[in-house]
Amino acid sequence: MTNQPQPSRDYIGYGAERPNPQWPGNANVAINFVINYEEGAEYGVLEGDDHSEALLSDIAPAPYRQAERFLNMESLYEYGSRVGFWRTLRKFSEREIPFTVNAVGRALELNPEAAHRIGIAVSAGIVDVQSHGWRWIDYAKVPESVEREHISLCVNTINRMTGARPLGWYTGAPSINTRRLVVEEGGFLYDSDAYNDDLPYWTTDFGRQHLIIPYGLDTNDSRCARNQGFDHTDDFFVYMRDCFDTLYEEGEEGQPAMMNVGLHCRMIGKPGRIAGLTKFLDYVIEHDKVWIARRNEIAKHWISVHPLRNS
């Protein structure tokens, strides 16, 4: 265990009296769509790792292959960057729906065309980019000094390749040091390495105020690869719809919240799955009291309307 300060646990949160987030337009729910761009940054011997990737593909979970390439896994990841990214991007572009890209630095580096297109969308105010680590790996297994270096490398790569410095951070597989290192790096409005609330909240674990915008793994297409019930197009749509309807109703009752929708190019970008996403996109835009927001917008709103107050 590290001797450095660690994230605390909070079992209480806002409790029964949750704050009204006062979303723009008096929206009942804020929804943030997140496209995770990871392909090429996963475990693999070509990237200097001692084993192959095993997670989040159509053959996952699979055993790691030690000291050798796993060609089927590599190919399934490549589908995301070659095809799935562009198909998913079209669905959002056709509907002029804003979203967030969770960008892994190494993955962007391997596909300059995709990075360029993301940069164009950022310049147009359609997209923001959240740092998703330099590699798509488990940082609990990475030395602190290497993780610190990777945080800076990721930020610099995203800035260079998209033209905008990322203001948010989400590792996905963080170490006990990650949040402290993100706070120490500076320049971030928030991080999203938490799943414990439907609203943003503040922490002061590391000597300064730091905003958390929780993410979601239930409203996430990674369930297609985790054997957790997203077997068919309608499984994805129905779960997302039901979550949205519940939050929308709670908003009508004076308890607005936020919803995350996590997407992966190699998963939702398949022809047999994209229909579930398009159904849900069309369902959401039929509703009036919805704020479809980029993640940076949610952070800036919370900072402005709900600043941390000293007790």
Radius of gyration: 19 Å
Structural class: alpha/beta
CATH architecture: Alpha-Beta Barrel
Output the CATH topology. Answer: TIM Barrel
Question: How much helicity do the residues have?
Answer: 25-40%
Oligomer: single chain
What integer is the average pLDDT? 95
Full CATH superfamily name? Glycoside hydrolase/deacetylase
Overall structural domain count: 1
What is the count of helical runs? 8
SSE succession: EHEHHEHEHEEEHEHEH
Strand element count = 9
Biggest sheet record: 9 strands, mixed
Fraction in beta strands:
5-15%
Which residues sit in consecutive blocks of at least 5 with pLDDT less than 50?
none
Q: First CA to last CA: what distance?
A: 32 Å
Please report the first level of CATH classification, the CATH class: Alpha Beta
> Can you tell me the overall shape?
globular
What topology emerges from the helices and strands here?
Layout: E1 29-37, H1 71-95, E2 99-103, H2 105-110, H3 112-123, E3 127-131, H4 144-162, E4 168-169, H5 178-185, E5 190-191, E6 201-203, E7 210-212, H6 233-252, E8 257-264, H7 271-284, E9 290-292, H8 295-305
Helix pairs in contact: 1-7, 4-5, 6-7
Task: For this entry, give a set of tags.
TIM Barrel; globular; 311 residues
Describe the structure.
By secondary structure, the protein is of the alpha/beta class. The chain has a single domain (24-305), classed as Alpha-Beta Barrel (TIM Barrel). Helix content is 37%, strand content 13%. The chain has eight helices and nine strands. It has helices at residues 71-95, 105-110, 112-123, 144-162, 178-185, 233-252, 271-284, 295-305; strands at 29-37, 99-103, 127-131, 168-169, 190-191, 201-203, 210-212, 257-264, 290-292. Strands 1, 2, 3, 4, 5, 6, 7, 8 and 9 form a nine-stranded mixed beta sheet that branches. A hairpin with a 6-residue loop joins strand 6 and strand 7. Helix 1 packs parallel to helix 7 (271-284), helix 4 (144-162) crosses helix 5 and helix 6 packs parallel to helix 7. The protein is globular, with a radius of gyration of 19 Å. 46% of the residues are buried. The mean pLDDT is 95.
